[in-house]
Amino acid sequence: MASLTVFPAIDLKGGQVVRLAEGDMARATVYGDDPAAQALIFADAGADWLHMVDLDGAFAGRSVNGDAVAAVIAAFPGKVQLGGGIRTVESVERWIGLGVQRIVIGTAALTNPDLVRTAARAHPGRVVVGVDARDGMVATHGWADVSDVSVTDLARRFEDAGVAALLFTDVGRDGLLKGCNVHATAALARAVSIPVIASGGVAGIEDIHALKPHVAEGIEGVITGRALYDGRLDLAEAIRVARG
């Protein structure tokens, strides 16, 4: 059976490592003030990928926690996937130039699909489309707004764009430890030819076990944050199960 990639998450707010509940900036729990040190903890547990989000950037529409991101890139020996406020070709180029392996484009994928196409053409296999869902519809601007576009419709717009993956987040579960929405994630993976990364709600090792059988359907990886920080999920064990 093919392996699942586990992406431990570092979300940045004011230079600190935080997790939000349902994407609400007012409901942030601080887990540390040294993102680079946290990245090394994940590396020691066996992580070869890291998922980072500039939360302030997602709301501001531009990079806000750039220094913290740069420190993590310098410290982490593996590959970094970064999202949050990346809405111009210039910001894509800047981050890739600084060593980010994959760029996640979320809000701009809906509002400016040409950005995704241009970036994916210039950097094949290095652009991820963030598909954030609330009740099956695409949420934008740091999840503050909900559009009238369905998740599957948005995903299908990029079938021929050369993107590396779709990052599917069930906003209603994010940071709440309710369990990953395996059903919706697998349905999206079956509906499109682009690999899908699951995100939102991972509560423990049972979620890794639940996602693993769907790798053949197109689920490529899973992002986990709060469960790691709260000690409900052991990263080394998660990686072992995911690699199978």
Mind explaining what this structure looks like?
This protein has an eight-stranded parallel barrel with strand order 1-4-5-6-7-10-11-12, surrounded by six helices. The N and C termini lie close together (7 Å). Helix 1 packs parallel to helix 3. The chain is an alpha/beta fold and 244 residues long. It has one domain: Aldolase class I (TIM Barrel, Alpha-Beta Barrel), CATH 3.20.20.70. 35% of the residues lie in helices and 30% in strands. The longest helix is centred in the first third of the chain and has 10 residues, at 35-44.
Q: Helix-strand pattern, N to C?
A: EEEHEHHEHEHHEEEHEHEHEHH
Indicate the CATH topology. Answer: TIM Barrel
Assign the structural class, choosing from mainly alpha, mainly beta, alpha/beta, alpha+beta, or little secondary structure: alpha/beta
Poorly predicted ranges: none
Question: In the CATH classification, which architecture applies?
Answer: Alpha-Beta Barrel
Number of domains: 1
CATH class: Alpha Beta
**Main sheet attributes: strand count, strand direction, barrel closure:** 8 strands, parallel, barrel
Rough outline? globular
Rg estimate, integer Å: 16 Å
According to CATH, the homologous superfamily is: Aldolase class I
Overall pLDDT: 93
How much helical structure, as a percent, in the residues?
25-40%
Strand order of the largest sheet: 1-4-5-6-7-10-11-12
Write down how many β-strands occur, each being a DSSP E stretch of 2 or more residues: 12
| Total of helices | 11
Strand content: 25-35%
